[in-house]
C-alpha cells in the first residue's frame, strides 16, 4: 500500500467524521504534554534557584574541603570533655605533612567589620585569604575590575582589599567599578587600598584581604577554628569518608584530643556534596517525569480507546479491504498512522502552548522577582526562571512518538485479526 496524499486524506476524513471524539481525545494528549512540560520546567526553576543560593551544581569542579574544630566530646589524657579547640597558623603546615592528599591548605580568617569611605559605611564579612583561595575554594568568582589577592600581597603583608560590587556601589555610589580601584578605605580604622571588584552573588558579598594582613584588624589570629583544604584526588563519597578519618586522626594528634572523638571536628567537601546534590536532583527529575507521564497516560488510553472504537466501526470496511487483497501490514499501518497522527498533532499543539506558558513564567519570575526573599541584606533564591531545555524537548518528542505507537498497537493488532468473510457477513 502506497502512503501518499490520498492515504492521509482518507485518514483525515475519518477523523473529521468524529470531530468531537477526536477533539476530546486530542485535548487529553495535549493537556498531558502541557502538564509534563510545566512540571519539568518548574523542577528546573527550583534547581536553578537552590543552586544559585547554595553554590550547588557548579559547572566547574570545586575540590575544596572546608573543615573546622570545636568542642571536645570525650575526655582524653587528663583533658576533660567540653574543651574548646583552636589551631595556630603554624599547625596548618604540620597538618599538610601528615595528610598526603592535601595539596594546599589555608587557615580560615574571618570577622564581621565595618568598611568606611568618607561618610559612606558598609558592614559585612571580611576574610583573610591565601593566593590560591579563588582558584581552589571559590571557583565562581567573576572579576569586574582590577585583580584578586595574589602571592605578593600575602608575602609582603600588603594592605590590599578585594570588595564585592554591592559594597563598591554602597561606598562609591557608582557601578563604574574601575573607579573604585586605588581608593583608600578603612576597615575598623586600618587603611586598605581597593585592588579589585568582583560580582556579588546571592550568598557571597564578603571582602577579602591577604591572610598575613588579617591580624591588623583581628588580633585573635592564633585562635583559628578551621580552614580550607584543596584535595583534588577526593572525588567520591568513599574517598571523602577515608580522608575524613585520616584528617581526624591528624588533628587529634596535633591538638591532643581523642581520635575517636568525631564530634570535635567537622568537614565539608564541595565536590562530594555537589555529586550528592546532583543525584538528588536526578531522582527529583525522575519523579517529575513519572508524575507527568502518568497524566499523559490518560490521554494515551483515550487514543487507544478511540482507535478500538474506530476499528469496530470500520469492521466491514477492513474486511472488504482484506478481501480485495490488503495485506496485514497495510491494515496495521493504516491504524498505526491514524493513532500517530492524533498523538503527534495534539502533542505538538500542547508543546507549543506549554512553551508559551514557560516563556510567560520566565517573564513573571524575572519581572516580579518571584521566589526571592532577603535575609540580612542577602538575596536568597528558592526559585529561578523556568526553562525547557533542548534535552527535555527532545525527550518529550520521543515520548510522543512512543505514545502514538503504544496507543495504536493494540487496536491495530485487533484489526489484522478480522476475518474478511465474517466482516462482510455482518
TrEMBL record:
Membrane topology listed for this record: Multi-pass membrane protein
Which InterPro entries does its entry note? ABC3_permease_C (IPR003838), MacB_PCD (IPR025857), Macrolide_Exporter_MacB (IPR050250)
Q: Looking at the record's lineage, which domain of life comes first?
A: Bacteria
Location(s), subcellular: Cell membrane
PANTHER family (alphabetical): ABC TRANSPORTER PERMEASE YTRF, MEMBRANE COMPONENT OF TRANSPORTER-RELATED
Family in the record: Belongs to the ABC-4 integral membrane protein family.
**Cellular component GO terms, alphabetically?**
plasma membrane
For the MacB-like periplasmic core domain, which residue ranges apply?
Answer: 22-241
Q: What organism is recorded for this protein?
A: Porphyromonas asaccharolytica (strain ATCC 25260 / DSM 20707 / BCRC 10618 / CCUG 7834 / JCM 6326 / LMG 13178 / VPI 4198 / B440)
This chain belongs to which protein, by name? ABC3 transporter permease protein domain-containing protein
Residues that span the membrane, as ranges: 20-46, 283-310, 331-360, 392-410
Q: Boundaries of each ABC3 transporter permease C-terminal domain copy?
A: 290-418
Which one of the record's GO molecular function terms can you name?
transmembrane transporter activity
What keywords were assigned to this record? Cell membrane, Membrane, Transmembrane, Transmembrane helix
- Pfam families named among the record's database cross-references: FtsX, MacB_PCD
